[in-house]
Amino acid sequence: MDEQKPRILDTRLVAQSRLFGIEEMHLRFSNGEERTYERLCTPPLAGVMCVPMLDQDTVLLIREYGAGVEEYLLTLPKGAYEHGEDWREAANRELKEEAGHGARKLTFLKRMSLSPGYMGHHIGVVLAEELYEESLPGDEPEPLEVVPWKLSELDRLIERDDVTEARVIAALYMTQRILDQRHS
Amino acid sequence: MDEQKPRILDTRLVAQSRLFGIEEMHLRFSNGEERTYERLCTPPLAGVMCVPMLDQDTVLLIREYGAGVEEYLLTLPKGAYEHGEDWREAANRELKEEAGHGARKLTFLKRMSLSPGYMGHHIGVVLAEELYEESLPGDEPEPLEVVPWKLSELDRLIERDDVTEARVIAALYMTQRILDQRHS
């Protein structure tokens, strides 16, 4: 716990596209070793992901195309923060845009990272309960299919080939654990 | 399940650094909508991550600096495939390099994605059991601290601020579930 963090001697932008920026960083570790690393510095470094519970056992998943993997996947509503939103506002907006529901009760579960070695990105996982129907137009190229699933059949969900996203799997296990504890 | 995948009309490399490549892709969805997306096409798109169990309840975590988030985090041994390795060889090599152990029993649990909207990356999660002490030199700038943790105290681990990686959280929950089922 008392490690001394590496000293960042230098950083510079080495490549950039419309969406992404890549930064080179020159580090000196506390033992004197020096390394040059690269990391992604955009797209937006912070977002939120909702676990929308329709009832005590039913989560609303969405089916969405992932251009990175070239597959349709079952995932959870998520997106980046927009202009000054707090996590509650962003979570509720994404939920309305992608799953056609708002939530009266929102609980922040965990701030998760993706690949902390070369990405600064974090996503806040939010449990959304006491849902009501309300839609907002999003920027999706096609309407997203909403797929209800029972958390009591979570193992069967995670076996599926169209469920691969680590943050989705982590969020669903966390939610199951929290709901179990609440009712025990 | 019968969605027609978007047609990839065109792809081209729009930015590149030593480590990363960024590809622009022009897509036409089945409803006729067209979009231009960007995605990361390197670093290596496939890797493995081990969940090393020292005994039925003790997992070996490692403490490693994440340059992307500029923090030391508790994580699991992982890395990219090297020259023709299969998942067993890669998992055992990473385990020896990063946690000072080999494993006689390796079980493939799940192929996970990170951010499938703009990354093609996948990591194979491997349960490693029947461990023995053996080290291989890695390319780490400093020796990694190995931190044993009880899976029976997984909730307390996940509450920690230095445990954030979604794939690590997902892998530990999956492992706990599998070991619980094995002994019930």
Automatic annotation (TrEMBL), chains A, B:
Keyword Glycoprotein: no
Signal peptide: none
GO molecular function: hydrolase activity
Cofactor(s) in the UniProt record: Mg(2+)
Database matches in Pfam families: NUDIX
Annotated Nudix hydrolase domain residues: 43-176
The entry's keywords: Hydrolase
Cited InterPro entries: NUDIX_hydrolase-like_dom_sf, NUDIX_hydrolase_CS, NUDIX_hydrolase_dom
Protein name: Adenosine nucleotide hydrolase NudE
Organism: Alloalcanivorax balearicus MACL04
Gene that encodes the chain: nudE
